[in-house]
Each structure stands twice: as C-alpha cells, then as structure tokens.
Amino acid sequence: MNNTTIETLQNHRSIRKFKKKQLSNNQIEEIIRSAQQASTSSYVMAYSIIGITKPKIKEELSLVSGQSYVKENGHFLVFCADLHRVYSQASIQDQEKMIASLESTEQFIVATVDASLAAQNAVIAAESMGLGACYIGSLRNNINKVNDLLELPDYVIPLFGLALGYPDEEPELKPRLPMEIIYHENQYNTNQNGKVAEFDEKLKDYYQSRSTNKRYDTWTNQMIRKYSHPVRLDVGPFVKNKNMNRS
C-alpha cells in the first residue's frame, strides 16, 4: 500500500538527539494548528500547549526530567490538561454550579485525553515535515516545580513535554507487542501469556542485535521492574490540590 500517512505512523521512533537548528515560526504554527484539529470531547478543547523559548526555563525543565534533550532541541512544548479556561469564562454564580463537575474524575480524564490526542497530532505533523519527536513524561519527576515555573493556575495540570527538532540520529525501529495482544474482538482475551512470551524472545533479539545500547532484557522483565517500585506518588495529591480529580 502506497500511503505516506500510514508509512509515517508505522515508522515512528523516539528521537533523543537533535541538530542545533531551531524550528521556524511557520513550522511551529503548522504543528500547533495540526494539534488543534485533534478530536475533542464535547468541543471542550480541555488542554493548553506551552512553548518554551526561554533558555533558563528549558534548563530548569531539563534538570527536572534528567534529560539533556529537553533543552537541546528545535522547540519544546508542554501539554497541559486545562479546565481553567472553562472555569474562568463563567460568572461567579455559574462557577459555583460547575465546581462538582470540574473536580470530577470524569472531567480529569476528558482533559487528559484531549491533551494526549492533540499531542499525537503534533507529533504526526512534525514527522510529516521530516522532524523528530520525543515525549517527556519525566517532567512529572517534580510536578510542583514545573507548575511553578510555568505559573499554572488551578484546574491546569502539566502532563508531559514534547521535544521536537531535526533528527541527529537514526535509531532502529523498536518492536511493538503483536497486534493479537493489543486488539481484542467483542470481549477482553486474558489468554495472552504464550504470545507475550514469544514477544519477549523477539525483543531480546532486538536488544542484542541493535547497533547501540545493547543489553539482555525482555518486555516482561522491564514491566516487573517498572511496577515493583512506585514513583511520583506526589502527583495524586498535586492534582487534587489543583482542584482536579477530586471525586
């Protein structure tokens, strides 16, 4: 099938090393406009995107994340769940009626999904221009500091960053779980252990044969290590202190 969109999607890889070249204003605008055309629940558009142009803020965010490519890229974005815009447009009387809904888990999910859909649109737009991208969830390593750096009001949560730029590396395409593990028909299929074991062997081969950072590992072992050590336990209280996900 000769379809450039599908080719772009199926050749996605995270880029962590960028050339020292900034994106043009036109490129940034096209990426943001593409992000804005993502699907949104009930036309709320419950997200905001913050472009980081001040070197000092980039440096601080890089220290929070522990990743050098947060400051060394063509442009850096922070995607936020945002219900403040809705709240701030209402009268005081209407705000009082809206609080129970705004503070609900449902609306927190809506805002998080809206932001994530917009971000993925931004990545696809960037990659269609020949640019690279990498999501930065590690901004949540110190979510309070990020909140203060970006001066975020109540009802706004910094979810993740997105580093964009001209790739200065070409990493191998990393295997994904087989489609039959991800895609279920009609009911959830819990009988997946055999397929996961097969994927573990495939991933082990990938790690041992790739050109850099070779190691002996499997997907299952990675997940056991990851979920055996809880991290960022301050995020839950932080979200509630921002008057979101409280009920």
TrEMBL record:
Keywords: Flavoprotein, FMN, NADP, Oxidoreductase
A Pfam family that the UniProt record links to this protein: Nitroreductase
Keyword Protease: no
GO molecular function, one term: oxidoreductase activity
Segments traversing the membrane: none
This protein's record includes keyword NADP: yes
Family affiliation: Belongs to the flavin oxidoreductase frp family.
Name of this chain's protein: FMN reductase (NADPH)
